[in-house]
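Still learning. Any example?
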Amino acid sequence: MTDTPHQAPVTGTTRLYAVLGDPVTQVQSPGLLNPLFAELNIDAVLVPVHVRPADLAHVVRGLQRVGNLDGLFVTVPHKAAAARLADRHSRTVEITGTANALRREADGGWLAENFDGSGFVAGLTGAGHEPRGRKVSLLGAGGAGSAIAAALLTAGVDRLSISDPDEPRLTALVARLTEHWPGRVHAAVEPPLHDSDIAVNATPLGLSPDDPLPFSPRALPPGSVVADIIMKPKETPLLREATAQGLRVHHGMHMLTGQVDSYCAFFGLAEPRTSD
């Protein structure tokens, strides 16, 4: 016997959700949310949809006209473009310029939200890595990185240093964040790892086995936390190297699991049941 719920059959009444990315082989959200739909007796299914950047606008506009599709999840590399395609934006999306969820409203328009940052911070604190008062080095100013930056500042980090090879993107993000959190966020050509309590990889480096490390954990002081947002593989080369150096590590899957309650509220789904 098993307590794992079986996937309900897909019928003509099933509500649809899609996760858009390029690639999509690494996405973990269907494996997390489809069992949740079954557990909660929700007649819905989430499917990966491989969309190349040149086709994104056509796909988003086309799916907007699918009557039984209620929302989109967005992953790399589409989060900034998805925000631009939305009709309305949350405050988080306005600050970060990126979105990872689009909900179709009653008038047919897309409302954009980004839960990457809040999910990341929820996972971080849940694992015992409290960000308040810490010095953080963040690698990556893209879709996830921008949301994580805003959430870390909201959570009370003392100093946030952001690095990204795309200088215009980095400069624009730091300027937007500084409007809300002056004096606490800085652009860094090289992350100040020697003076950081937490170092976060918010880049795609680690998706492919031949990717270089986004940074060297050897530069971090003892007791630091190395966090990666890559979910597959779970043990990225960065996290393996950090473990070898005796540092604490934080896996990418925590960022997704930390978003589940927010997704349920955003899409109007029932709250997940908690076990006693």
Remarks:
- The radius of gyration is 19 Å.
